[in-house]
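Fill in residues.
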């Protein structure tokens, strides 16, 4: 089926009370695992790409692989560019076939963030592509962006209203206390801030830093209107741990394809666990039956 934009599937998710997993894939193997898991559970999904993955594989080549996987899938698939600080790269991805891009200018003063995001949003809108923007600073390391605990700060509600109105974004990612990477203790999420933002920003909401949040936190955020949840670290960990475990257990293995099949299965299971937690299981069927 044709690819879908992130905004359209998030709007349905917000209305129906579930969230779509956005999994940061690393290559064809991991993208295939994510699509297969979603097909097994009849769930819409977002294939999310970090900037370093795009740079390593190349815009055109990665677009080709993901578009083939997405258009051949039995469930709706969106292709999203995560945390991009370079408008030129975001625009190249729009042109190559991504269905949404995140322009992350959250490190800049509000008016500069708005001006830069607006350039990409105006371009993307003409091509039918959604744009995600972020305010506040999500702590931790994501790809090439490292925000220390001292630098991390929560989104300001009044700024969020101005930003959402003036930047032209379709999807909003507010920093409410989650972090990229692994949590050291239990994260303190500011649910009241999230609720306040929902009142002044009439856009679908994204939660960054999904790896390691409790089932309770996911449910609460989804109930409050989060409809896209980003998972990157859990995929990387599953990739490396399952490969390590296989190679130790079968040190005489001669066929790399068996290693790939093992890793693919492990990632598929991890993705299915998250899809079940996010309430997305069976949602595509439910939508078709409407
Ligand atoms: P995690 O590192 O918690 O998986 O967060 C991923 C993310 O938010 C990507 O933008």
């Amino acid at each position: 089926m044709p690819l879908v934009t992130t905004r359209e599937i998030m709007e349905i998710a917000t209305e129906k009370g579930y969230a779509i997993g956005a999994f940061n894939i690393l290559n064809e193997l991991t993208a295939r695992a994510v699509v297969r898991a979603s097909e097994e559970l009849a769930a819409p999904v977002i294939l999310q790409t970090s900037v370093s993955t795009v740079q390593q594989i190349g815009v055109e080549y990665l677009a080709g692989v993901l578009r083939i996987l997405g258009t051949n899938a039995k469930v709706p698939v969106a292709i999203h560019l995560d945390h991009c600080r370079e408008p030129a790269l975001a625009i190249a991805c729009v042109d190559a076939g991504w269905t949404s891009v995140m322009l992350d200018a959250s490190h800049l003063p509000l008016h500069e963030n708005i001006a830069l995001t607006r350039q990409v949003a105006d371009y993307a809108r003409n091509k039918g592509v959604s744009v995600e923007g972020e305010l506040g600073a999500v702590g931790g390391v994501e790809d090439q962006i490292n925000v220390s605990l001292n630098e991390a700060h929560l989104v300001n509600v009044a700024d969020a209203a101005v930003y959402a109105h003036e930047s032209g974004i379709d999807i909003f990612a507010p920093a409410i206390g989650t972090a990229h990477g692994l949590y050291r203790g239990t994260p303190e999420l500011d649910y009241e801030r999230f609720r306040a933002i929902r009142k002044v920003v009439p856009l679908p909401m994204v939660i960054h830093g999904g790896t390691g949040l409790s089932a309770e936190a996911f449910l609460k955020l989804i109930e409050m209107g989060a409809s896209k949840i980003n998972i990157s670290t859990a995929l990387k960990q599953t990739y490396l741990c399952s490969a390590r475990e296989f190679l130790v257990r079968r040190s005489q293995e001669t066929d790399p394809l068996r290693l790939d099949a093992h890793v693919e299965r492990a990632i598929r299971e991890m993705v299915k666990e998250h899809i079940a937690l996010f309430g997305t299981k069976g949602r595509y069927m439910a939508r078709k039956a409407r």
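The beta strands are 20-25, 45-49, 77-84, 100-103, 130-135, 140-142, 145-147, 171-174, 205-207, 226-231.
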